[in-house]
Amino acid sequence: MAQWREMTFLLNIMDDQTISSLYPAATFPIEFRHYLASWIEEQRWEDFSLENVEQEVPAQTLLSQSIHLLQTVAQGNVNNVVERMKLMQLSKNLLNSQRPLEFAVMVKDVLRKEKIIISEKNKLETMQHKVNSDEEDIKKLTKKVALIMEYRKKMHQLEEEFNWEKQNYECMQAIYQQNPSDMKDREMKAVMNKIKTHEFERHRLSMERKHLLRDSVEHLKKSQDNFLSALNAWRWEQHKSVIGYPFSDDLNPLQSWSEQLLVVNSSLRQELMLVHEPLSDIDEGLKALLKVLIESSFVVELQPPQVIKTQSKFSATVRYLLGETLIPGKPVTVKAQIINELQARSMGAALG
């Protein structure tokens, strides 16, 4: 099942057309791959080929086992009528449309394609991590935010469909009371099944959306912690440069990183506002991350000399990494004041 676990992660970032071509609904539906994942990966499919007709018998055995397992899984879904009926239909389709040897070769081919996809994904991730791991991390976060937005849109669409079906059911109920018939009764039951399906799907998406929000906040915290570590490392390298250590003073990568973290935080807070139910843990987490990010993004880009003579002039430069991203359209003005050693000690004592 390890292979399918990796594939389920990848499916979230694959387009629908690619998924449909990999798991054709008519011959190898994705539900079959999902519910029988462990069993599928435990079998030996590599030995099957269309040329070896003597393998028809073991192929027939595997096909029969898969149909039986699907039916078993379906019967286990006692609390989900829709899922149970769907799985039963899938088992019937396999029984009626599949030739054993073609079925075995098809499973082998799908598993081979999955391994190629996973292998390419691992190669790509390794290469991107070496080149720029923080950018890849932000991209993943952005994809999660996009998926949360997609869930919200789907839930809105389901809400509209639910309301329409409910109104339709109420109208049919009024007509049925005046002129009852078996046909109208069946139609009403069909509409009620649609209503229940919409309710189930809305609940499922709502739970997945909240789970993804929490997961995104955790991911954002890890990325922000990495940013703060990189920023502290930059400050330490800057400090060592005073005594001659080589140092690159380019803050642009860190600024880009901090701005992207702020954008993700803002997007998650916006999505959280649209959930319409209290999720205080997520809200407090985002607020805490935002506070730390805002406070940490003030950087002394050019430090003054370590030893300053009396009545001498010197220069220093401060930089706010979030810049205009904090308040779009309104440039942020950063003011800095130099204080003496006594003032610094008094301030440190007050903060401590």
Write a brief caption for the model.
It comes from Ataeniobius toweri. With about 350 residues, this protein is an all-alpha fold. The chain contains 11 helices and 2 strands; from the N terminus they run ααααααααααββα.
State the main characteristics.
352 residues; two-stranded antiparallel ribbon; 11 helices
Account of the protein in words:
It is a single chain. With 352 residues, the chain is an all-alpha fold. 73% of the residues lie in helices and 3% in strands. The chain is built from eleven helices and two strands, in the order H-H-H-H-H-H-H-H-H-H-E-E-H. It has helices at residues 2-11, 16-22, 30-35, 37-42, 56-76, 81-97, 100-178, 182-241, 252-273, 280-296, 341-351; strands spanning 298-302, 317-320. The chain has a two-stranded antiparallel sheet. The two termini are 53 Å apart.
Layout of helices and strands, plus pairs?
Blueprint: H1 2-11, H2 16-22, H3 30-35, H4 37-42, H5 56-76, H6 81-97, H7 100-178, H8 182-241, H9 252-273, H10 280-296, E1 298-302, E2 317-320, H11 341-351
Antiparallel strand pairs: 1-2
Euclidean distance between termini CA atoms: 53 Å
Give the overall pLDDT as a whole number: 79
Q: Count the DSSP helices.
A: 11
Strand segment tally? 2
Low-confidence stretches: 127-131
- Please provide the ordered H/E string of secondary-structure elements: HHHHHHHHHHEEH
- Beta percentage is under 5%
Q: What form results from the Cα inertia axes?
A: elongated
Biggest sheet architecture: 2 strands, antiparallel
